[in-house]
Amino acid sequence: MRLRDWMEALPQRLKPLLPPDLQGFRWSARPWLVQVYYRDPAFHYEVWHLGERRGRIEVGLHFESRDPVRNRAMLMTVCAHIWEIRAQLGPYVEAEPWDRGWAKVFETHPLTSLDEDSLERFAQRLARWIQTLEPLLGDPPRRTGGRRQDASKT
Q: What is the rounded distance in angstroms from the CA atom of residue 135 to the CA atom of residue 61?
């Protein structure tokens, strides 16, 4: 399967894995990543193919607003629960400030073949991330109908 096709198939595979109150996400994709969000596209879950040379795929929650203070506050909210998050998602979850005043909570996995099996595994993994972290982020997500946003605007 081509990387672009794999990334664009991930949201459809993800939706039925989530409870009804979390199925109303929006998403955008580029050939190397897919972003899933509820309230603000700057705060999104991401599956990112880090490239053949690195041989890894990242799954995480990114805080990428233009306001570094807001990003850091969101990171601190999540970090206050890092032990509970690791209990749910595993010990390899990391949380850190990142480039351009951004921040992220993430894990990486070895790059696998891009096929139906890996698509299912990563959709299940992303569903676990969403179900673990969304309750920590405050208000429940608003239902947005799950429509795709134009990927060129993210």
A: 13
Sequence-distant (6+) residues with CB within 8 A of 140 are: 21, 134
What's the domain count of the chain?
Answer: 1
Torsion 82-80-139-42 (CA) sign? negative
Instruction: Decide: 65 and 40 in contact? Cβ < 8 Å.
Output: yes
Domain assignment of residue 127, yes or no = no
Asked whether residue 119 is domain-assigned, the answer is: no
Tens-digit pLDDT profile for residues 39-96 = 999 999 999 999 888 889 999 999 999 999 999 999 999 999 999 999 999 999 999 9
- For residue 38, give its domain range: 1-65
Between helix 82-89 and helix 68-79 the angle, nearest 10°, is 70
> Encoding tokens for residue 113?
């073949």
**Euclidean distance between CA atoms 52 and 56, whole angstroms:** 8
